[in-house]
Amino acid sequence: MIAAKMVERVVLGTLLVVVAARCYDYDKVLRLSLMFYESQRSGHLTADNRIPWRADSATADRGQNGEDLSGGYYDAGDFVKFGFTMASTTTILAWGYLNYKDVYVEANEWQNALSSIRWAAEYFIKCHVSDYEFYGQVGDFSLDQSFWGRPEDMNMSRPAYKIDKERPASDLAGETSAALAAVHIVFADLDANFSADCLSHAKQLYKFGTQYRGLYHDAIEGTSQYYESTDYGDELTWAAAWLYKATKEVQYLEEAEHMYAKYGLNERPNEFYYNKKAAGVQMLMAELTNEAKYTEAIRNFCDYNLYVQKKTPKGLLYIEKSGTLCHAANIAFLCLRAADIGIMSTQYREFAKEQIHYSLGNGGRSYVIGFGKNYPRQPHHAASSCPNRPAPCSWEAYRSPKPNPQILYGALVSGPDENDNYMDLREESVYNEVTLDYNAGFQSAVAGLRQLELAAGGKKSYRSEDLFNWNWSNIFAPNVTNA
Question: Which InterPro entries does the UniProt entry name for this protein (predicted)?
């Protein structure tokens, strides 16, 4: 094993090393990242909307039989709602909240964090219209790409695409099951009815995914061009592990263990993102069981990325050009979780800090919009490129050489190339794309680094019962003035 003879430092020393090197306001980063998710909301916005240039949009999204599919999140700078990446995003955000809840409370962002998670989960529940029917996409990407403007001004057709017994997608069903199981845990002590509803749908979707096998991009035509899924074994195992964490029902653990072996998830992966969950499965199973086969697997994954994986000259992990910073942040988050359970704590925490700090400014500039020095001004994002209403918005905004008039606070852009080169140009989406999943592991990793500070400073731990006094009806009441 790589670096197997390296000696661990004591936990307190680890915490002090990380804290001493900190030079960024993690609380602000978390606040801004949550604002990015608010910028991506579809449907009727709530009374506490913090994004002044956003209003209600796509409120008439409907399924093939008239089902209400309003809500959820737009995927990126466009206005398609892709269920697969939205679900993956939700699972990672919920996982980060579960482990680093104190951070969100300390930053006074716990309500916004819970809102961001619940916003997606309520949409998934709407999309699950029967036991074996789930809407996995709203909007047609080819139609969407012909429009550049605000989501509030859309007038194109928005077809909805579902999976069912004839067109199954085990990966989509499995990932959504995992997301809802994770959300169930988050809300178990806050909203019993909503939490139970999440778990019921999680179980049904897992059953759907295991009984009727198929791939997302085969079931919903056209998705392979944007979000191809190459397998479903990792998502089904991921779902089973999350259901075990949510229920402690042994059958789910047994099924996760069986599929882990069947689909070869013990092998070392090179990445962790929406299409490749093996490393996440390894980490979650290590967390749940503390068995050596899982702890060794996640150690091998982190060691490879720490000591072998290609890096840019300035030290950023380089997996591929699309979502460079997202890949690095996702791996940083997993290795922080490994450190949390005692695996190579000092090395992994320092490694995670280096990767996240690159995005925040150590790479020579900030890659988080609205944060730090010389952050991106021209993200590939239609709505933020538009002037204030009622001024019209069209492809002229796309071609404008000026910064986006609206600041897309908190969005993590795709990032630099393998040589640390970066272009802050709207049309260069390979550098300046923003997506839901880019921010998920990043936000959770930032929360993990902030947790180390709180632990080193002797801050209190918050319990779920401390958070009961939240009026959900106010938070989720549509803002009628936004029409």
Answer: 6-hairpin_glycosidase_sf (IPR008928), 6hp_glycosidase-like_sf (IPR012341), Glyco_hydro_9 (IPR001701)
